[in-house]
Every structure is written in structure tokens, then in C-alpha cells.
Amino acid sequence: MNDIATENTQQYTYIIAGGGMSGLSLAYYLAESQLPYERILILEQGSESPKTWCFWSNEDHPFDAYAEHEWKDLVIQSFDNQALDLSIDPFVYRKIESTTWTQAILEKLKSNPKFEFVQATVESFQYHGKFAQVLTSQGKFEATEKIFDSISPYPCNLTDPKELKQHFVGLFIETNFPLFDSSKATLFDFRIAFTNACEFMYVLPTSSRTALFEHTFFSNTLIEETEYLKQIKAYLFAYYGLSDDDYEIKGREKGIIPMNYVEIPQNLHQKIVKIGTAGGFVKASTGYSFKRTQELLKNLVSKLESNQWNAKVITQTRFKVLLDRIFIQVLVDQQVKGSSVFEKLFQKNSATRMLRFLDEKTSTWEDLRLMTTVPTWPFMKAFFKIVFNR
Ligand SMILES: Cc1cc2nc3c(=O)[nH]c(=O)nc-3n(C[C@H](O)[C@H](O)[C@H](O)COP(=O)(O)OP(=O)(O)OC[C@H]3O[C@@H](n4cnc5c(N)ncnc54)[C@H](O)[C@@H]3O)c2cc1C
User: Three-state secondary structure along 51-79?
Assistant: First the structure.
């Protein structure tokens, strides 16, 4: 391979556009793989704010080592103040801070001379003969094999009320005195869900004095940032007796994650492959994507190793897609309280079955049984709406 492909164009075997969660995860799996490559380039503009990534898992993974905290017990607080304790064994719920993880992965990759990093803003992608190229603020780069694109926007219109989003603002707080039970994380506290929109507080205590409180919606319309903050403060006062003087705000995070389903059909023949949020790796009905991204990328690399060029990047059965779309439609329609959908599911099914279901690891028979535990009419209507629209 020539170092300089054409004048001012540097050539690499693979180029990864975006060194965030999916880009660096892919780099990690490529570094571990048996794939032949000469040079891999990671392009990152370097302006991403820190994030907290949580996921449940019943399998070991090298990234577990970077978890800041883990929980074996989860809690769901229903709207009518019933606490449902979920013992999730053999699953564990883990929390990874993006800054710790990114630093660790970068250190590992930087010890491999085949990886190069360029801080640049990607402007566009193009084809040049049989290769793909990326145009950036630092020049043009060409990939002999593939460009992986984790920077393109996922098609989700933030102002369209038909498109569901997970939107949230979280505060990391430290109290002046011990208060929290750090052995349990609250996945949903629906005591704040007064409307039909799926609204809840997500609480991750990491020690007796530190916790993340995230006011979260699975809904179609966004709200002002000050509203989430007001709600968190009111919640801290109402349920923990905390007034402003009792704690210090150590940090905050916010996000809008698409929860609309858009099919992004891709196979490994393509020279430019979208990954991460850009590639539709977010599980539409939950907004989770950390673990799913790891599974999809590990698979992608092993398919590249075995030259499965026809392999799809995402392999989700039609039935699982349909279930996802029905869930999303129910939450968009808001004919039933979003809180009661999740409450019923977790009350009537074991926690481990629910987690397997959300991971798409349940059988069709289990899925059908699970569907008998949801509010019937809203789900039937959503089903017909989707089938009719088709
Ligand atoms: C605050 C927050 C919390 C989340 N928490 C969870 C969670 O708990 N569990 C979970 O499963 N999922 C979570 N998610 C969803 C998802 O896991 C993350 O959004 C994840 O970071 C997505 O990975 P990605 O690689 O697609 O995007 P990113 O991690 O955002 O990576 C994209 C990278 O591309 C770079 N970039 C963008 N444009 C350009 C450009 N033009 N040129 C060069 N570089 C560019 C960015 O700087 C960024 O580093 C969360 C999302 C947010 C926003």
C-alpha cells in the first residue's frame, strides 16, 4: 500500500470517523482481531461532553473493568408508591463514565503503532474509484477497505411529535451526610408521572453520599432544560428531604436519544458503513445502545474476519422489529400512561425475563406470553396502526 495514495491524500486500510463510543469500541475489536491491516485512522473532532453509559449484562466483557459502579438489585417505584424490588441475578447493571473508558481505550490503542489519531472535523464522504474517501478540516483521507461512519445524524426530527425521543437532564450530587443505599439503582421512579407521557426519575447511587438523578422522558415533545432541573430539585426535597444547602452539584449531563425506528439496511459489501447511533444501533424502544453496540461490532469484525461480505450489519428479526415499533407507537399515542406499561410488564414478568426481552434474547413463545401482560387495547390499536400504515 502506498503511504500517499494521490497528492495530499493519505491512505489507510480502515478509517473510523468519530472516536466516541462506537468508533473506539470498533477500534478495540479491530485491534484484537486477526484481520490483516496496515494502518487504521481514527478521526475525532474532540468536542463531546462526558456521558454515563449503563447497561445490564449476564456475560463478562473486558470493558467491565472500567465500570465505576455495579448493582445486582434494581428498583421500580410505581406511580402509586409501590416499590418493586428486582433481583436481576445473573445480570449485573453497570455504570461506565465515558471519560474513564475513553482514556483507557485510547491508551491501549496508542500502544499499537498501526493506529493513528487525527483531530479533525469530518466534512463529507465520497467515493474515488474503488476506494472511499473522507474530507476533513485536516485534509483528505482514503480507505482501501472501509470507512466506518459514526458521525452522520440518525434520521430523527426533534420537533416531529410522531417521533419518540428519550430526553433527559441529570445532576450528579454529593450530600453533606450519608443518605443513599448504593446497592440498589432505581431504573424507573414513576411517582412523578402525572400525565400519560412516560416520565420518570432515574436514580443511580454510587456511594452513601453520591448519586446521579436523571429526570427522563420517553416522549415526542421536548421541554426546556430549566423544567427538568426544577423537577429534580423538587424530587430531592419530596423523596429525600434534601434542600439546596444539603448537597453540592458535582456535574450534569443531558441527552436526546432517538427512539424512532428507522431501518438502515447495510451489509459488509459497502465501502462506507454506518455504526453507532448513525447506524441505527440504539435499541429504539429503550434508548439503550452501549451493550448492543458491543455485540453488533464484535459480530461485524468476526464477519469481516470470515469474509462474509453479504452479512448484514444489524440482524434483527422482523418480529422483534414489529414488537419495537408497537411499543414505540403506544408511547407516542399516549392512550395509556407510559408508566403503567412498564409497571405492568415488570410486575407480571420476572426481571430477568424482562431484561432478556429488552435484549431481544427471548423466544417468540416468550414474547407472545409477555404480550399478554401489557394493556391490551393500546397495544392492539398500535399494532393495527402499524400494519395499516404499511
Ligand atoms: C448523556 C447520554 C447518556 C447516555 N447513556 C446511555 C446509557 O446509560 N446506556 C446506553 O446504552 N446508552 C446511553 N446513551 C446512548 C448512547 O450509548 C450514546 O449516545 C453513545 O455515546 C453513542 O455512541 P456513538 O458512537 O454513536 O456516538 P458518540 O459516542 O457521540 O460518538 C460520536 C463521536 O463523533 C464525534 N464527531 C461528531 N461529529 C464529528 C465530525 N463532523 N467530525 C469528527 N468527529 C465528529 C463526536 O465528537 C463523538 O466523539 C447515552 C447518550 C447520552 C447523550
Answer: CEEEEEECCCCHHHHHEEEEECEEEEECC
Residue corresponding to grid cell 423544567: 227
Number of independent structural domains in the chain: 3
Q: How far apart are the first and last CA of the chain?
A: 48
What pLDDT shows up at residue 7?
Answer: 60
Residue 286 in contact with ligand 1 by CB distance below 6 A:
no
CA distance 76 to 348: 13
Indicate if the pLDDT at residue 3 is higher than 50.
no
Checking if the pLDDT of 5 tops 90, the result is no
Q: Which pLDDT belongs to residue 390?
A: 57
pLDDT of residue 1: 39
**Ligand 1 proximity of 121 Cβ (cutoff 6 Å):** yes
Decide whether any atom of ligand 1 lies within 6 Å of the 184 Cβ: no
Closest ligand 1 atom to Cα of 281: 26
Here the CATH number for the domain that contains residue 216 is 3.30.70
Per-residue pLDDT, averaged over 150-161, amounts to 90
Query: Domain containing 369: what range?
Result: 318-389
Ligand 1 nearest atom to the CA of residue 121, by list position: 42
Instruction: Kindly report the protein residue whose alpha carbon is nearest to atom 38 of ligand 1.
Output: 151
Rounded CA-CA distance 46/54 in Å is 22
Per-residue pLDDT at 161:
83
Helices marked H in 290-317 — which ranges? 290-305
What proportion of the chain, given as a percentage, has pLDDT over 90? 88
The length of the chain in residues reads 390
**Residue 79 within a domain:** no
Q: What's the whole-number mean pLDDT along residues 32-36?
A: 96
CA dihedral 187→188→189→193, nearest 10 degrees, is 160
Shortest-distance atom of ligand 1 to CA 288: 11
For residue 55, give every residue at least 6 positions away whose Cβ sits within 8 Å of its Cβ, in sequence order, or none.
93, 94, 288, 290, 291
Alpha carbon distances (Å) from 269 to 145, 208, 272: 10, 51, 9
Cβ of 279 below 6 Å from ligand 1: no
Are 77 and 2 in contact, with CB atoms under 8 Å apart? no
**Is the Cβ atom of 42 under 6 angstroms away from ligand 1?**
no
User: Are 197 and 131 in a shared domain?
Assistant: no
**Which grid cell is 357?**
426481552
Asked whether residue 80 is assigned to any structural domain, the reply reads no
What is the pLDDT at residue 293?
98
